[in-house]
Structure formats: structure tokens, C-alpha cells
Design goal:
Layout: E1 5-10, H1 14-24, E2 30-36, H2 42-48, E3 53-57, H3 65-75, E4 80-85, H4 90-98, E5 103-106, H5 110-122, E6 127-128, H6 133-141, H7 144-148, H8 151-156, H9 160-170, H10 175-182, H11 186-200, H12 205-214
Parallel strand pairs: 1-2, 1-3, 3-4, 4-5, 5-6
Helix pairs in contact: 1-5, 6-12, 9-11, 9-12, 10-11, 11-12
């Protein structure tokens, strides 16, 4: 029997938590193991109930989402985090991604996208609301450090297998999909993805796709 994905919800609006609970209950692979109305003791609660994915509002009383993410980093917690926010500010998005968030959802579309977001993050990928993807693109394409690097040298360092995986990532294939298509393990796929991110100096699969599209590395 497949293990269920354990989810903890954190938001200071009970109505939003109730709405997400109703949606998540429709998926038999999900188990909501707890919820919080503020950030106080949130890290401890998540550690105690074995949460796999924390869906968390960025603005909460007692302790906000940024503080929680920093505490996760300090304590080395591996729980994945999907940030909820009413804002699509580029600076905020960049900050939470830098702190290790695996996803970013605007509250306006949380209800309809929450299941896809959790599935994607559980598969080891990152998830962003469609309404903020343009802002994510700008963050990566305006990365001055990446622009300063020798692009031709970077591209020439990409192996045939990495290029194959890069194309599949660009087709929105999950780590599991790629492992089955190429007959390799999910861990091997993840290793290639991390190596590509390091080579191209990007921080997510979104950044990989942007680089590939910009430099015509994606097959038609």
C-alpha cells in the first residue's frame, strides 16, 4: 500500500484552511495531519507529526513564513514547503525560493491548484501559480551573475544525457515520468537535475526551462 503524503496547513484564516481541507479530502493519497492558525511552534508541530509538505501562509501572527523557513534551514528540517500569499511581489518570491520553498501559490488560485501543487512538490519538482510565472521568468532572466558567465562554455559542458533530461523537464515531465521513460532511477534523475542547475547557475526547474528555451536547447 502506497504511503500517503502527510500535509500540514498553516494560515490565520480558518475559512481558507476549511476550504483547502475540503479539496484535499477528495484525494485518497493525501492525509492532513494538522493545521495551525499562527506561526508559533509551527516548526515543532511539523516535526512531531511527520509532515511531508507544509502549505503555509507567508503572513501569520506570532511568527511569519519567512521566519519559519529560516528556522527550517537552521534546524536542517527536510519538510517541503509551499508558500501561500495574497501577493505576487517579485522580491518576496525570490526570498522564499532562496530560503528553500518548493512552491508558491497565490491565495486567489489556491483552491483549484492546491492538489497539482502538492503532487508536483511531492515528486521533487517546484510549483508556481501561473499568475506569477512571468515574475519568476524575470527573476531568472535578469540574473546578472548568469549573464556574466560564458554561455558557450556552459552549453558545451552539458552531456547528452543531461540534454535529454533537460528536454523532458521542459515538457513538464516529473522525476518519476523521466525515470520510467529513460529506464533510470528517480534518484539518478534528481542527480542530473541538480547537476544541470549547478552548471546553468539556476535555482529551480523553471530556471532550467528558461535557459533551455533562451538558448534553443529544446527540441521541437
Amino acid at each position: 500500500m502506497e504511503n500517503k503524503i502527510k500535509i500540514h496547513l498553516a494560515d490565520d484564516h480558518q475559512v481558507l484552511i476549511d476550504g483547502m481541507l475540503a479539496v484535499l479530502k477528495t484525494n485518497s493519497n493525501f492525509e492532513v495531519v494538522g493545521f495551525s492558525l499562527n506561526g508559533e511552534n509551527l516548526v515543532e508541530r511539523v516535526a512531531k507529526n511527520g509532515t511531508d509538505i507544509l502549505v503555509m501562509d507567508i503572513n501569520m501572527p506570532e511568527k511569519d513564513g519567512i521566519q519559519v523557513l529560516r528556522e527550517f534551514n537552521e534546524k536542517g528540517f527536510t519538510c517541503k514547503v509551499i508558500v501561500l500569499s495574497s501577493y505576487d511581489d517579485a522580491k518576496l518570491i525570490k526570498e522564499v525560493v532562496k530560503l528553500g520553498a518548493s512552491g508558491y501559490l497565490t491565495k486567489q488560485c489556491a483552491g483549484e491548484n492546491i492538489i497539482d501543487a502538492i503532487r508536483t512538490v511531492a515528486d521533487g519538482e517546484q510549483y508556481f501559480s501561473s499568475t506569477i510565472k512571468d515574475k519568476i521568468f524575470n527573476i531568472f532572466t535578469n540574473n546578472s551573475q548568469n549573464q556574466a558567465m560564458n554561455t558557450e562554455e556552459i552549453i558545451s559542458s552539458i552531456t547528452a544525457r543531461e540534454l535529454e533530461i533537460l528536454n523532458l523537464i521542459s515538457q513538464e515531465k516529473s522525476g518519476k515520468d523521466i525515470s520510467e521513460m529513460l529506464d533510470i532511477s528517480v534518484n539518478t534523475v534528481e542527480t542530473h537535475r541538480k547537476n544541470l542547475m549547478k552548471k546553468l547557475n539556476v535555482k529551480s526547474s523553471v530556471g532550467l526551462v528558461i535557459f533551455a528555451a533562451k538558448h534553443n536547447l529544446i527540441e521541437n
